[in-house]
Protein: Amino acid transporter transmembrane domain-containing protein
Amino acid sequence: MANSYNMKEFSSTAIITENSIYPSTISISTINTKCKEDDLEMTAYDPFQNRKLEHPNSDIRSFANLLKSSLGSGILAMPAAFKNAGTIVGVFGTIILGYICTHCVYLLVKTSQEVSKVAKAPSLGYAETIEAVFAHGPQPLRKLSRSSRIFIDWTMAFTILGACAVYVILLVDSVKQIVDHFYGPDVINKTMYFLMFLVPILLFTQIKNLKYLAPFSGFANVLLILTFLICLYYICSEFPDLDSRPMSANIGDLPLFIGTVIFAMEGIGVVLPVENTMAKPQHFLGCPGVLNITMTVVVLLYMVMGFLGYVRYGDEAKGSITLNLDTGEIPALMAKIFIILAIFFTYTLQFYVPMEIVWRNTKEHIAQKYHNTAQCIMRAIFATLTVAAAATLPQLEQVIGLEGAFFYSFLGLIAPSMMDLIFNWERGFGKYNWILIKDLLLVFFGTFVLIAGVTQSLREIIRTNS
Structure:
């Protein structure tokens, strides 16, 4: 028989976008394995009507929050993505990948809403959704419900930590350019830059209270916008002919393009928190819907930035377009300083999320009197690991492609498709089993991106480091 959730015990986490703190959705810690099998009675439960929100967000605010979570520093990597695709392939590739990513986000949210009815839970986060899907899916999979939640929790944590490592690389590259300009090239060993950043990172990541971190989010947003505008100024000031760049690139480089675009575009970790805090969550999906409007804007901005940046800088386009700017000019220098400050504060904010996930899954194994000490040690270890990973893999665009292919292809493409597949396994796949065929194609595509993208990224890393 289908499982139901015992709603007596909850634990909470927090998901942070670039400008907002989102209270976690309910994390259900106990599952009652006895439940009625009557689907009609279970689906009569309306999770939207049972959500108790002190400050629900309007559609416009939800649009803004989702837009901010998807429009981060990743947009500055789009010119580097286009050099692995070409102008025309890059444009159409960005549109196609944007559609696929949007549809997978749709599957995640739709499955979460549907399984909330069955589980009789007002709202569910990503990990809780997959736990509920397994708990109410085919009988052989139900025993895997708890382990699936733990797996997704840790995958999400390491995904965000990987993004933090990317931020460290961008910080070091930007500071190194400024120091090299004023004091000469290689005056400081690059490893020393990573060690120097380790100190402030260790200090700021010890902040456990969100209210001390949240004010920096708005400041980081302003700096990112200013950086984006300065980059556009430089792109358009000396714009070459459109036919000066190839329309397509080597097909073997396409996995790098796909991985970079997915990394830049995916905001899979904040989608459900945004939907769960809406005053009218039924407006999130559908046409036009908050999701479709937001992703349309995101795809257009990423496509324009990638196209214009690649036409301007060609194969010289770096992992962040700010690295292509001439440090000797004041606006360019300001852009580099802005991106350093914005990325540093973004790092500290993003770092909070995986630490909450890790602590949620480990604190029960630690005595209460050692909780504070254990948290300090845990934060120091993971912060050091992100800096060590950044120092080991210092090529920004290659690490972005690796991160996108390895983590975001799974969380953004494979997992949502598998959840939809499992949830509909006993509920039907529609006429001609079109849902089954579509979900399998998405899983195969995500697996291809993961394998091919990781392989190509590792080849590039080995080639450049040899």
Remarks:
- The mean pLDDT is 84.
- Strands lie at 4-5, 10-11, 14-16, 21-23, 27-28, 31-32.
